[in-house]
Amino acid sequence: MLSALAVAVAGGLELAIGEPPTRVHPVAWFGRVVGTVDREWNHPLAVGGLAAALLPLGAAAVVGAAVALAASIGPLAAVALAGLALFLTTSLCNLLSTARVIVADSEADLPTARDGLLALAGRDASGLSAGEVRSAAVESASENLADGLVASLAAFVLGGFVAAGLSLPALPVAAGAAAWVKAVNTMDSMLGYRSKRVGTPAARLDDAVMWLPARLSALLLAVACGSPRSVARARAWLDGVPSPNSGWPMGTAAAALDVRLEKPGVYVLNPAGKLPDAATAQRSVTRVGVAGAAAYLLSGLGVYAWF
């Protein structure tokens, strides 16, 4: 019951606040620590491996210890802090609102839409057509469902389940697990580029960590879109996607909405379809929101039923 309440706290804060300001966001603070690793090293893989091993563990230890300390005050204090920690490792409402604005701007003011896309997708938008901008918004919303929400929720549930099985306090371990996953994902987003050898260990770790959340997100999207077969259809297009994980929710969205999603020069999902129009892109963003709400609900039910 306490763990389910923590999930409810996180969901309530997401609806009420959406995204804390960057200056007070612990993920941004962690990012500044990661930034100290982002430079040239004589042995970049060794440094990167050490950072990938220690920095996420440090984040998890801080969060887990804080929740454990709150538990010594009382169970509701632990619930509140664990819920806050889970909220800070997730993002949904801000993702949805940003994607909706970009899609709307793609019809009314294409240069503004291209500029806004920088908040979602790490690609050069200067030469993108309106349809390609909308495609990028749909792709990013679908991919970030996994990165920004499902991964942390799944870690919270699995961490608490393992803790309960080992007779450890569930809330500190669950919150620490969510923080660990978010830290791994943050390191990958900052360092996981081919040009940064120091980021290779973090990128490979993120690939492993995101394997399950990406596929869970694809299933949630398929259900939210009322197209259960879209996950199977997406498999045919995934070979061209560089990431072993991000193609699953993106491909599922392309199949469920029967649209072409494309990163020019990199990959094409559902090549027989057309680029999304504004109405279809907005519908896709809404479906991501439905899938996100389902993720919260299933997480709360999961922790309530298991521990």
TrEMBL record:
It is found in: Cell membrane. Converts cobyric acid to cobinamide by the addition of aminopropanol on the F carboxylic group. It comes from the Archaea. Pfam families: CobD_Cbib. Keywords: Cell membrane, Cobalamin biosynthesis, Membrane, Transmembrane, Transmembrane helix. Its main location: membrane. GO terms for biological process: cobalamin biosynthetic process. This is Probable cobalamin biosynthesis protein CobD. GO terms for cellular component: plasma membrane. The chain crosses the membrane at residues 45-69, 76-97, 153-181, 288-306. One of its GO terms (molecular function) is threonine-phosphate decarboxylase activity. It comes from Haloarcula taiwanensis. The lineage of its organism: Archaea, Methanobacteriati, Methanobacteriota, Stenosarchaea group, Halobacteria. Belongs to the CobD/CbiB family. The gene is cobD. The keyword tRNA-binding does not apply. It is a multi-pass membrane protein.
